[in-house]
Known about the structure:
Elements: H1 19-28, E1 35-39, E2 42-46, H2 48-54, H3 56-65, E3 72-75, H4 81-93, H5 101-113, H6 117-129, H7 136-145, H8 149-161, H9 163-167, H10 170-178, H11 180-210
Parallel strand pairs: 1-3
Antiparallel strand pairs: 1-2
Helix pairs in contact: 1-4, 2-3, 4-5, 5-6, 6-8, 7-8, 8-11, 10-11
Amino acid sequence: MSAMSDKNPDSNTNLIPSVPNDFKELFKDKTSTDVTFIFVGGIIKAHKVVLMARSPVFKEMFTQKMANQQNYEIKITDIDIEVFEEILQYIYTNNISSLDKNHVIKLLHPVCKYKLDALKEVCGESIWKEITVENASRTLVMANTYKMARLQIRTLDYIYEHFDEITKAPSYERMKNKHPKIAMMIEIFKQMKEGKEKLVIHLLERRIAFE
Length: 211
């Protein structure tokens, strides 16, 4: 009987290659690369097809902006080489080395630059898990800067729930002076929340009155 019998569909699962491990090895193997990223402190080589499959920015870059080029050499001046290597590791393997808040914050700029939306959500979740009264206003600024809508709404809710504590903190005053539009956003959100609560109370009172 064949080892790949239809009666036992799971018998050949051990023959399925480990795609993440294969791509991890591909990332390490520089012999077949066709893209070179140039930094002040060195170079990193990569595979165009992998970059295109994972990032719409790279796809547009290689199919439109650089379509007629033979050699793909790209200078990177706004991202540290170590951070960029971490981003490439994610592109190849779907993993990052750490979910620590301070680590993922360093990734936000390249994550947004190359539109790695799934990783952006992961970063947002890691940042949210460590929100405090002391860092809430800074978190909101960060969420607004990198257009992290879910983190922004959750942080606004958190600030509303801890409004007196947060707005009395020195960090809030600094944020208010540096980012007046963010402070205005907080005030508007607070008014909206209070307005909804008043409306709910009013409707409940009317319902009780008619019963």
